[in-house]
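Team,

Forwarding the record for the chain on the shared tracking sheet. I've put the sequence and predicted structure together so nobody has to dig through attachments.
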Amino acid sequence: MKKIFILLTSIFLLTNCSNSSKQQASSDSSDEDGLSGTIQLSGAFALYPMAVKWGEEFRKIHPNVKIDISGGGAGKGMTDALAGVVDIGMVSREVYPEEIAKGAFPIAVVKDAVVPTINANNPELENINKIGLSKENALKLWNNELSTWGQVLGTSSKTPVHVFTRSDACGAAETFAAWFNKKQENLKATAVFGDPGVASAVQKDKVGIGYNNIAYAYDQKTKRPFEGLAIIPIDVNGNGVIDPEEDFYESTETLIAAINDGRFPSPPARDLYLVTKEKPTKPEVIAFLEYALSEGQKYAEETGYIGLSEEKLKDESEKLK
């Protein structure tokens, strides 16, 4: 009886040790390198949804790393990064030489685009979709030179046009303005804060027109424009009508395909950047950037972005080595 007791006790201890080892192995596999700490990001609304998705997925691998993400515009992201207020600034425009001189270290992570948006109930919507938005009319609209949709369309319509722009320093405005060879400070219109702010202003104004990053123009669940919003097709060749090859705004899938094959102009398509002050040294920050350039790319399209080419990803990854 004593021998049986000893045998059962031994089996219990061995089983318990085995389960403990398995639990430890499972715990170790969820965070093999033992990363911990906090990563702080701020900046471009354009990158905010992508950064949130990456943060969620990254923490499944590294649960001991806390990630804080806030919007505020590309200008804020760059300022915060250079001041050391955050680890990473989200920037949705090209990084300026003077920012590089101050220590900005940019890593391109995905592509995006800015699209002109109008209210889905605009009384002139059918005609607007026929001619689209040309560079010439965009320049005039955001310079307060056109006051009615009739002037935009070349008709007698007296329907007023209300133009919106961004009040915050941002990549969306800078990139959209660059399409017709201007800068954000040249855009004259009713100024609204943030990507969500412009989208909301246009949704509430039947004759409004603005511009938004893809993630704020399209619902990523349905892949269609948000309720109350419509996308104005861009008249790329400037012939005054939207040709079949210029009509690809029905969904994010068709728009992304057009960006990839060059039918959508660049700008307003552009690379988006995660920016640190000098080359990063914090292990958790390096790991996050490496994740964005590798496994994180598979989440780009479902979140409303365009993944980078293999060649571009290789070049950006080399910067971190």
